[in-house]
Structures are given as structure tokens and as C-alpha cells.
Amino acid sequence: MSTVHPLHSTAMRSSQKMGANPDLLAHIRANQLDKDIFSASRHSVAVGPVTLEFRVSANPVSATVELYIANRLIGGGTLNHAHPSAKFGGAVDKLKSEADLTLDIPGKKLDFRFTVCAPVVGCTSRSGTLGL
Question: Is 39-131 in CATH node 1.10.8?
């Protein structure tokens, strides 16, 4: 493992100015954002330590979904034209959860339902629809 001494670091020192050095990122074009950059969004739904995270896109219509229990990934997948539905779940210690999802491509929406079960308190479910 190598150690970088602060005096020999390639990081910019506070006394250096951007204009004093050549453009070290000249190989990256400015203003190269894709026109569809805003067609994607992120969402999440949580019940206690269980979180269902969504990344949805309208162009092309798709959704990537991940299910976490206590910050541990227990399942997930990508829904699209070829695979418009998914069901997955798992457990961490005594907490159990399952997610059921359907991507409605013509309607540009994602329907979801997930259930969480814990000892003593029992089970609860959340469901909803995300527009793409």
C-alpha cells in the first residue's frame, strides 16, 4: 500500500488557480449531457428497516428495483419490455420481506406491493403506483 505525502500530491493546493494549469480534462467535452437525462428518477418506500428502492426511466420504459432489509440487499431486478413483472424476497435474521412488481409499458407506470413480516408485530404491506 502506498502513501501519498501531502507535499507531493497531485491534488490542487489552495494557492493554485484553475487558470494556472492546462485543462487536465480536455478529453471530456462540455455540454455532452444526453437529452434523456431527466427521463429517469429515483424513489424509495420504507417500512421500518425494510426499503424498496426504484430507479425508473421513461425512455426506454424500464425500472430497476432493489429490496433491502437493514441495509442488506436481499433481492432485485430490472423490469422492461422483455420482463414486465418480478417477484422476489428474502430474510435477514427474523425479518422477512417480499416485493411484487408489474411494469405497465403502455400506461408508463410501475405498480408495486411489498410485504414485511417481523416477530411479535406481525406483517404489514405497502402498495402503490409510480408514473414514469
Answer: no
Spans of all domains in the chain: 39-131
Q: Which three cell numbers stand for residue 61?
A: 420504459
Q: Which residue's C-alpha cell is 413483472?
A: 85
pLDDT by residue (tens digit) across 67-107?
A: 999 999 999 999 999 999 999 999 999 999 999 999 999 99
Residue (of 107, 108, 125) closest to 116 by Cα position: 125
Residue 71's SS3 state is coil
Place of cell 424498496: 52
Look up residue 28 and give its DSSP letter: S
Residues in Cβ contact with 78 at an 8 Å cutoff, skipping those fewer than 6 apart: 62, 63, 64, 65
Torsion angle (degrees, nearest 10) of CA 75, 87, 65, 44:
-100
pTM: 0.71
Residue 44: alpha-carbon gap to chain centroid:
9
With a CB cutoff of 8 Å and minimum separation 6, the contacts of 2 are none
